[in-house]
């Protein structure tokens, strides 16, 4: 990223509802949500509520993004909470519980699209709740002390608060030359990312420790990797690696080879993502204090695009566009902030061409890992 602009000012999933929007290209996160739902349900059941407890419970979805996944997560939390309150209070004279949901993300998030669909979603559901938007980084305090009963963050914590400063030192061992992500790069670069990821997670937890009531629940689902795995991507043939490393690096190199950008411009862009392992997460929670891990599980997610890819094999151009759209859903806003609209369009045109030519890779069966953590505020 351009050092003159803060990452949090430009980082977001692609807004709107067109072909490159996150709302239309979030099949992977949807699959992860589905896999984590039993664990999320169990986590909500573990919240410490007693008969006659407050009828006003507050829920926060941090890094909410936009689209059906956002509402799916909140619907699950609200449904389980209402069921739990019914079991505790029974059919008594207790008032109908009022649930308040805070949808929070960076200011660059497409809150307009979120709010346009929010009223319809809430009014058409039997699990009604009051809603509000809270813009801001979840690496800082967002709510008053002891305010929240349930906090969820889904497929968001793998995004860092910033590119590590060491990685931006041109010519140093941590200068990530020729790559846009850290998969396959020098060990010093990975270590710099790991340090930033650890600092970020501890900061996130310290903020939530202040905001969540004792007995409340924190549920985190993030891109990750299994214990003992050094590589950021588990399967060397995985589509995740190919989409965000090989094809991206090739597309950026195309811009360099065509004289559209200088090598230094290419080398200055880095994807602010780090996939933690279970030890790194547990260590951060332990050092922060204030939380007891109820359960931590590595989820192996089958790429929901596997079947779709087989269909697209008959039309390589459609495949190329589909892969370009999916990557743009997560990266277009920060790339456009760095390159501008015209070069960004050219970059993803080259990306689509490269993807269309990768016939052999289309046949590969792909998966990826997520880590789910449920913790109680103690």
UniProtKB/TrEMBL annotation:
SUPFAM superfamilies: S-adenosyl-L-methionine-dependent methyltransferases. Keywords: Magnesium, Metal-binding, Methyltransferase, S-adenosyl-L-methionine, Transferase. Gene3D superfamilies: Methyltransferase, alpha-helical capping domain, Vaccinia Virus protein VP39. One of its GO terms (molecular function) is methyltransferase activity. GO terms for biological process: methylation. The keyword Cell division does not apply. PANTHER family: S-ADENOSYL-L-METHIONINE:CARBOXYL METHYLTRANSFERASE FAMILY PROTEIN. This is Gibberellic acid methyltransferase.
